[in-house]
Write a structure and sequence with these properties.
By secondary structure, the protein is an alpha+beta fold. Helix content is 31%, strand content 38%. The chain folds into two domains: 120 residues, Translation Initiation Factor IF3, CATH 3.30.110; 98 residues, Alpha-Beta Plaits (2-Layer Sandwich). The strands form two sheets. The chain has a four-stranded antiparallel beta sheet. Helix 1 packs parallel to helix 4. The N terminus is likely disordered. Keywords: Signal. Pfam families: SIMPL.
Length: 229
């Protein structure tokens, strides 16, 4: 991290003082630069749930509380590496065909399992499926690994921006070019998509190993530069 900050600071100092200016005493140019990198997935997120039905809310709550305690006990041997978070714990009425009379109550209990791409997570997932149904699973890149990739890409984009600006200046027959603004974007985690197709892992004993693959991390920059007269 200190090396990253030092390099970025040096780059910004190299662009001063024109980098902070909005006016250009020459030809102003704009362009974009982007870089991407495939990062190996190192985490898994899985959604599991159960739905129950009974004649009253009290029975629903008792059933869901019992299941939640069973899930907690099943997940405990795999903590703290594998984390199980409660996402839903709710109940609602079931009406007759005319939607006037309550004929039953339904309840839902759902959790989100998070863990490393490892046999331990696979075993924890199999243990929870004794009580819950797997609705989807998605591989993700951890924030630590994503941040490292993003910082490396940002440096690469900044260096490329400088080269591109100088190339534009040379094409215009000018030797002095100053960067005015650099707007970096990207590198964020994609929104998780839980794949129901992967729910075929249910009832597998022993649980199969999970091949997570890679995700792309992309950083782009919109650059404004001034080619001096």
């Amino acid at each position: 991290m200190p090396r990253y900050i030092a390099l970025l600071s040096a780059f910004l100092l190299l662009l001063s003082p024109v980098s902070q200016a909005t006016d250009c005493a020459g030809t102003q140019i704009s362009f974009s630069v982007a870089r991407s990198q495939s990062v190996e997935v190192d985490r898994l997120h899985a959604k599991l749930y159960v739905e129950v039905q009974a004649g009253n809310v009290a029975t629903i709550n008792r059933q869901l509380n019992r299941i939640s305690q069973q899930v907690k006990a099943a997940a405990e041997p795999y903590a703290p590496e594998v984390e199980v978070q409660t996402r839903t714990f709710s109940s609602w009425p079931v009406y007759d065909s005319k939607r006037k009379v309550i004929i039953a109550w339904r309840g839902r209990y759902g959790v989100l399992l998070k863990g490393p791409v490892a046999d331990q997570t696979t075993r924890a997932l199999a243990a929870l499926q004794r009580y819950l149904t797997l609705s989807g699973i998605t591989p993700v890149v951890s924030e630590l690994r994503r941040r490292a990739a993003r910082e490396a890409l940002e440096l690469a984009v900044l260096k490329e921006a400088r080269k591109r600006a100088e190339a534009h200046g040379q094409a215009l027959g000018r030797s002095e070019v100053a960067i005015q603004t650099v707007n970096l974007s990207g590198g964020e985690a994609p929104r998780p998509v839980f794949r129901a197709a992967m729910a075929k892992m249910m009832d597998a004993a022993p649980a199969p190993a999970i091949q997570a693959g890679t995700q792309d991390v992309r950083v782009s920059a919109h650059v404004q530069a001034c080619v001096m007269r």
